[in-house]
Write a structure and sequence with these properties.
Keywords: Coiled coil, Metal-binding, Zinc, Zinc-finger. One of its GO terms (molecular function) is zinc ion binding. It holds the Pfam family zf-B_box. The structure is a single chain. The chain is of the alpha+beta class. Among the domains are: 75 residues, 2-Layer Sandwich (Herpes Virus-1), CATH 3.30.40.10; 58 residues, no CATH class; 39 residues, Double Stranded RNA Binding Domain. Helix content is 38%, strand content 11%. A three-stranded antiparallel β-sheet has the order 6-5-7. It is elongated and about 140 Å long. The relative contact order is 0.06.
Length: 251
């Protein structure tokens, strides 16, 4: 008899801290489960207060609870990992991988978290930050190029003085008192300039095509004129040749 298969939702086995499948899962007193390294990191930050909380339900514990591996949950996660995902979930050539679960195709990028997410982790992200102003955009593989390397903030400002994109914090130090505009305004201006340039090139191309057509017509007209002159010349020479033959032929 074949064993019964139980359908499970992969989201039930996600760590609420790293948003990835549980690794070395532990279950704390309130019943929520986390990667051991994730909950350890959270509680390390609460060491000074000597009061430790659950990142999800905020239930507090004191003293710091001991962490024991949830063996059954770990086995379920391992089985879930072996379940093959649809081919279109994986990142292929030219695709950008999800920043949480390496290997899967991205769905969207968050300009606040500065990460790209697959469908599953995008849903987790929206669940965690519901009601907060997180700016989701079409997924892009150029996310790191949109971040200030010094302040790790989005490049939302364009410095006209130095001709480069900068972040808001840059306007307060090395770009202070510089001529700046929003990145959106700069992009709009660039797009306008590009359209004008394209229009100019298009006009030049059309003018050259017109000049070329006129040249072709002039060449064709010249050919026709030469042909007419040649025909006229033949028409004049032929009667003269006949008269000459008559004169030179004795009766």
């Amino acid at each position: 008899m074949a064993g019964a298969r139980i359908s499970v939702d992969q989201n039930e086995f996600m760590c609420a801290v790293c948003l990835d499948l549980l690794k070395d899962p532990v279950t704390i007193q309130c019943g929520h489960s986390y990667c051991k390294s994730c909950i350890t990191g959270c509680w390390d930050q609460e060491d000074q207060m000597r009061v430790y909380s659950c990142p999800q339900c905020r239930q507090t514990f004191s003293p710091r609870p001991a962490l024991a591996r949830n063996t059954m949950l770990a086995e379920l996660v391992e089985k879930l990992k072996k379940t093959e995902l649809p081919a279109d979930c994986y990142a292929g050539a030219g695709d950008v991988q999800c920043d949480v679960c390496t290997g899967r195709k991205y769905k969207a990028s968050c300009l606040v978290c500065l990460n790209s997410y697959c469908q599953n982790h995008l849903e987790q992200h929206e669940s965690w930050f519901r009601g907060k102003r997180h700016n989701l955009t079409e997924a892009t593989g150029r996310l790191q190029e949109m971040i200030c390397q010094k302040h790790e903030k989005l490049l939302e400002v364009f410095c006209r003085t130095d001709q480069k994109y900068i972040c808001v914090l840059c306007t307060m130090d090395e770009h202070k008192n510089h001529d700046t505009v929003s990145a959106a305004a700069q992009r709009t201006e660039k797009q306008k300039q590009l359209k004008e340039t394209q229009k100019t090139f298009q006009q030049r191309i059309q003018q050259r095509e017109k000049d070329l057509q006129q040249l072709r017509e002039a060449v064709e007209s010249h050919k026709v004129s030469l042909e007419k002159k040649r025909s006229l010349s033949l028409a004049v020479r032929q009667p003269a040749a006949l008269d000459k033959r008559r004169i030179s032929t004795p009766d």
